[in-house]
Automatic annotation (TrEMBL):
A cellular-component GO term for this protein: plasma membrane
Domain spans labelled Major facilitator superfamily (MFS) profile: 14-411
Keywords: Membrane, Transmembrane, Transmembrane helix
Name of this protein: Cyanate permease
GO MF terms, alphabetically ordered: transmembrane transporter activity
Subcellular location: Cell membrane
Major location (coarse): membrane
Organism: Microbacterium oleivorans
Amino acid sequence: MTSSDPRAQRRGRILALVGIVLLAFSLRSAVASLSPLFDAIGAEFTLPAAVLGLIGTVPPLCFAVFGLLASGFERRFGLERTALVALGAVAVGLVARGAATDAYGLLLGSAVIFAGVGVGNVLLPALVKKYFPDRIGLLTTVYSTMMAISTFMPPLVAVPIADAAGWRVSLGVWSVFALAGLAPWIVLAVRARRAAAAVDVDLEPVSTRVFARLWRLPTAWALAVTFFASSSVAYTSFAWLPKILVDTAGVTPQVAGILLSLFALIGLPASLVVPALVARRGIVMPLFVIASVAGVLGAGGLLVAPASAPWLWVSLLGTLPLLFPLVLTSVGLRTRTHDATVALSSFAQSLGYGVTMFIPLSVGLMHDASGSWTGPLIILVAISLLALPAGVVIARRKTVEQEWELRHGPW
């Protein structure tokens, strides 16, 4: 971010910091606040199994589709206005979901939310790149930590709030953070528009060729594969880990729920440590090795000796998603400008989520066909190993622009 006025630049960075924090918080709290309330909602109106299945399938689908569209939105409307609309969609969806009168209203509100989240996911690394190019590791730590907190906090308080004030309040209360987050982005969008008008700059700064070029670059594919490995293990675990533990380790459903919370909680220390290690110290390949080996040992332990130490296997499996903050940090470090960051973030997340949405479904179908969890756990082992070759590419520390110039000429 550049400005001739240091005070204006400082105010802009403060506004951006507040906006990034509230955007990150809203993206995950919107997703994590619904499922604990299905019983309470079902007491008021019918929730067909098909609709619940769609609500579970829609997030990665929307993340893939709207993540793919995010680069075009940013190109057309600018970074700040796109962030404003994405967060506005989340806020509207949260309010609509709290006001739903039937299952289809709940589904529609959720779809609006997930569309906004899909765009917001892509924009966060680019916002950091634009406003804090000198603090990518620190700001990635801030917003990825906020995402981790807002993932495990809503399930803890959703039911108590519903018991005290009703499920509608429990769902709608999260809109407060999204609505508050609109204020800084309104100001920053107006400032960006005025700055562009003052210097007669077109608000379409990104060449449409940038995204197309990424298909030919190993770094872009390595980031997409890493994102797939992290998100597929996470989504499969949230969907099936409790049942796997009950069926194979013999734990009670209550203990399985606690172990799932442990799986989610492992992401918090990773979000605090990983961005700094990657941005400040350039530590990449050792983190890939740790994540991959932990994933193999965790899934392998559940495969061969599930009842011996289920807490250990879950902790190890929960270590693999440390690749998520690693990818978020690397997206900013492997590009020169925030415009290229949008394209790279869109590429990695849309492809990663696009393939991820098939993994939990495939795991369920495989279990139904075989009556065993052996095949699904082998899949998790294979996905854990898949991250290693991607790590070799990302560890080379080349920006996508450099990679293109070495292979194809001027960017």
